[in-house]
Amino acid sequence: MEATGQPSIKPTFSEALRMWFKIGCLSFGGPAGQIALMHRTVVDEKKWLDEPRFLHALNFCMLLPGPEAQQLATYIGWLMHGVRGGLVAGILFVLPGALVMLGLSLLYVYGRGIGIVDGALYGIKAAVLVIVVEALLRIGKRALKSAWLAAVAAAAFIGIFFLALPFPLIVGGAAMIGFVATRQVETKAADNDNAAPRRQGRWRQAAWAVAIGLSLWWLPVLFAALALGPQHVLVTVGLFFSKLAVVTFGGAYAVLAYMAQQAVEAHGWLSAPEMVDALGLAETTPGPLILVTQFVGFLASFRDAAPFTPLIAGILGAALTLWVTFVPSIMWILAGAPFIEELRANKRLAGALSAITAAVVGVILNLSVWFALHVLFGDVTEMHTGIVRWYAFDPAALDQRIALLAVTAAILTFRFHRSLIEVIGVMALLGMIARMT
C-alpha cells in the first residue's frame, strides 16, 4: 500500500493517550530501544502507521537537533491527531522519566556519604564507561561507510579533543562538507516524482508553531532574568541548555561530550566523576537519554541556591532545564512536519546528515577518552602546548578496582550481550561489595 501520510488505522485520541503514557513508562534502553519499542507498538501491533511512513518520519527526525526518539513520538502523535496529538505524545514520552530523574537527583544530593549509595555509584561509573564505548562502536559501524566519512570522524576527534574547537562549529563544518560533497544523483524531475503533494497551509502552521514555540521557550528565561538578575544561575542554566537545544545533532552521546566539558570545566557546576554519575543515572530511567541535562541543571541550581533553599532551587533548575530542552524539540516537529514530504528526496540534506553522524563518532570517541581518564585515574589535569590541548595523569594512580569492574562490565556487554539495565544493576551491586571490602 502506498504511504499517504495518514495512519493505516486511525486510533481514537484516548487510545493514543494511553499508548503514549505506556511507552513513556517503558522506554528504557536509549534511542535505539525506544525507537524499536515505538515501531513494535505503532507499526506491528496497532498498525496505526505503515513501515514506509514510520521510516520516513524517523529520517526526518534524524535531520533535526534534539532527541530523535522523542521527536519521532511527537511526529507520529501529530500525524494521528494534529497539534494536540503531537503535544501529548512528546510530553508523555518525557514526563515519566523526568519524574524518576528528579527523584534520583534528590537521592544523589541527600544520600551522598551513605555507604550503599556511594558503592552503587562507584560501580555504575564502570558501567557507564563501557556503555559509552559500546555506543561508539555501534554508531561508528553504522556511520563510517566510506573513507571520507572516516576522515570526517577523525577530524572531528582531533578538533574537539586536541584543539578544543566548539561542538557547534564541528557540527556546522561537518554539515557544510557533507552538503557540498554530496552529488545530486537524481534529476530535478525525478525528485519531484518522488515527493508527495504539498500540504495546504503548511507555511501558516509553521509560522504559528515557531512564533508560539519561541515565546514559550524563552519566557521562563526572560522572567528569571528580570526577577533574579542576568547573572543568576537559573538564567545561566536556561541560556546554556537553550544553546544545547539548537546544536544537539547526533543524539545524547554526542552532545554529552560538549555538555560535560562545559559544565565541568567552564561553569564548574559539577565534577568529572559526578558527570559520569549523571550519565549512569540517566541510563537507568525511561525516556530520552538527554534527561541527563536535567540532573546537571538540578545540581547547578542546588549548589548556588540563593535566594531560594537548595531544594527549591534544584527543582527550579531541573524544571527550567527540561523546559528549554524539550520545548524547542517539539517546536521543530510542529513547524517542520508539514514539509516532510518535500525533504524526502533532497540528497544533499541526506549528505549533510551523513557527515554530521560521522563527526558525531569523533565526538563520542572524545567522550570515551575523557570519561576513561577521569574514571580510571581520577586526578586528571588539562594542559596546553600552544594551540594543542592534552590531559596529564599519573599512570600509577590507576584505580585497579574500578578497572576490574570496567572489564567485568565489558564482558557482560560484549560477550554475554546483557541488557543495559542488567549491566547497570550488576555493576551497582558489585560496586557496593567493592566499597565494603
Automatic annotation (TrEMBL):
Domain of life: Bacteria
UniProt source species: Undibacter mobilis
Keywords annotated in UniProt: Cell membrane, Membrane, Transmembrane, Transmembrane helix
Similarity annotation: Belongs to the chromate ion transporter (CHR) (TC 2.A.51) family.
Membrane topology, as annotated: Multi-pass membrane protein
PANTHER family: CHROMATE ION TRANSPORTER (EUROFUNG) (PTHR33567:SF3)
InterPro entries per the UniProt record, alphabetical: Chr_Tranpt_l_chain, Chromate_transpt
Gene Ontology cellular component annotations, sorted alphabetically: plasma membrane
Transmembrane helix as UniProt keyword: yes
NCBIfam families the record matches: 2A51
Pfam families listed in its UniProt record: Chromate_transp
Subcellular localization: Cell membrane
Protein name stated in the entry: Chromate transporter
Ranges annotated as spanning the membrane: 87-110, 116-136, 148-181, 206-228, 240-260, 311-337, 349-373
Single Gene Ontology MF annotation: chromate transmembrane transporter activity
